[in-house]
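I had to read the description of the data format several times before I understood it. For illustration, here is how one protein appears when written out as sequence plus structure tokens:
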Amino acid sequence: MNVSYQWLKEYLDLTDIAPEELADKMSRTGIEVEDVAIPETGLKKIVVGYTAEVVDHPDSDHLHVCQVDIGESELSQIVCGAPNIAAGQKVIVALPGSRITGNVKIKKGKMRGQVSNGMICSLEELGYSEKVIPKQYAEGIYVLPAEAVPGESVFPYLAMDDAILELSITPNRADALSMHGVAHEVGAIYNQKPHFKTYHLTEAADEKVEDYIKVAVENNLDTPSYTIRVIKNVKVEESPLWLQTKLMNAGIRPLNNVVDITNYILLEYGQPLHAFDYDRLHSKEILVRRAEKGEVLTTLDGKERNLSSENIVITNGEKPVALAGVMGGMDSEIQEDTINVALEAALFDPIAIRKTAKEFNLRSESSSRYEKGINHAAITTAGDHAAALIAELAGGTVVSGRAFESTLEVKDALVSITLEKLNRSLGTEITTEEVLAIFDRLGFKATEINGLFEVAVPPRRWDISIEADLVEEVARIYGYDHLPATLPVSEAIPGGLNDKQRLVRHTRHYLEGAGLSQAISYVLTTSEKAQQFMMRKSDTTRVEWPMSEDHSTLRMNLISGLLDNTSYNSARKNTNVALYEIGHVFYKEEDRILPLEEEHLAGVLTGSLVNDNWQGKAAKVNFFDMKGILEGLFATYGLTDPVSFVADSDREGMHPGRTATIYLGEEEIGFAGQIHPLRAKAYELKETYAFELNLQAIADAAKHPTIYAGIPKYPGMTRDVALLVDETVTNQELTELILEKGGKYLTNVRLFDIYQGDNIETGKKSLAYTLSYLNPIDTLVEEEVTKAFEKVIKALIETYQVVVR
């Protein structure tokens, strides 16, 4: 919302208040002023000129040689190429040495042999945006009114010496989308009562509106109030300069006196109006209803709109002539030959207006105000004021009465609050008299009995309905700077982590210690990627209005996002990547409205975990590196049920010979393995390994209590053994048997070598283990360890027919 400082001065005494000071005050009381701009800034030596004589340039088919009166004793010759230049016009002249927009300096010169002492300017050359320049001057120079005095500065005529305050209006303060609303706000800040100019509406007593038009509303919820006035015998022409400049400074293009008046009232009252050409309605009936499927309307922008039942339309009883609250129809627009005007002032359902504006991408000044709210008390007043101005500026006659249908009840909102509540909320000690004075400054009628304030809030402040709103209003006017800086008093409760939070934090620390870096991926992905690497069957959950197809579906795995991150790094020559992520996946269930959120842990490894060094080249990461990281992580959780890895050749997207399903007891909690080469190729990756776990299941699983023990005083013993077994026998099977038969002093079994190749027969493999023994309360005896070790060897031979090498 652009607010004119000079326009505000028509309502308030701002004599000793500079625009910058006003902007600062407004920002400190709740309505932010983003900028204060003075249009003439950077321009100089631009004056009014009078074209005494205009002749065609002898050596050009489009240039003109003009003799211009610029208030000096002699005429000044200026060459101009504007198509609308003519003798007898008051024009804008940039003198030699002047500056126009873009800091361009105007100099004396010659144009095709003719001397040119300056430049006759268009509005665009003074910095006006193309979208606000009146259409009749869009391709040429701007013509000033006849009363402009040659030689005087042009800036006061165009109100370019005004200060324009750019307000950033929040949705709850839509009352400030009008000059009256801003005037009330500024008046409250400076303890002034705004004075609005009165208008006089003269109606033709011999004619009644009932003879011209009648109004019907199909649904009063869609249209609580609808009013039509008729003004006949108008003359459509260019608006006076004061009206044009007010519109242009507010960012609105002047069109003609009738349409400009509706826009002026929109700015002044915040009430949207629409003017129909009465004769082009071809009806004496206005029916406001929902559009029917298949109906079509060509709007003022020349586009044909296919309507639906979501749209409220104004009809002539048969066909739509306007999109209610958004844009009028081309067939009934005000034109140069318009004689009779039907002027609409109404209130429409804000939700319906917003849907229509969004559907057709038609965000107008009217629709934005209907969406945010308007002052119900000003609807008829704004319409009457506009009718009076049309009669004054377009020479029309206002037909007596209004055609209307309304169920609107306009009254003050009553809100109560206590002095104790105010002071407790603000931490202040404001007195009753101060509070009453603040309400008076705001224009609220208030009474106080025993500390209870009964406040009557006028309809222009429809954002105030509860006591918290009154607290805010008192704080704004009292001054945020005057509120005491006190800390809230509350009982101090020490913070702490629950079991799941501790497990998640521990997981992060462990994986980062193992060389992985944390990544955060988008929760939204493509439908295809959402269904990759799934741990359970589920339909996809799509966003109704996605930003793009790449972010249209809630993920059901973490690995695809990590693969995207890994691919991004790999494409930038970072080939050694180890990432993990902890986040939610989303499963769709038939009996749930919202998707089921499940917390997962996933990781992706490719390249090497360590760098090359003097000892040799770094080895590429493999399945066992990843499995070792996971086994170490599981060991730190203290799970009571055993964790096992079972070969899995059927998992989608994974290598059939290098993938394992992970079980916690009998429950499947995840998988780990190599990404299938074809899937890795789709991500432009080389050999890559990944895992994904249901972290929620791990968090819920039973765990051993944490028991701290001292460092053992007694030394332990180890035994190494190499076993030749069938290649179908897994390390896990051998390890479980060793632990089962190893005796009470066996504390650890570690695989340190695996070999297949020369000197090993086909179908066999060699596995080498270190068995660690420890007695925490006594020194181990060699015979005890030997006896336990031999028992293990015997069990291995009997169960798996191993050969001890």
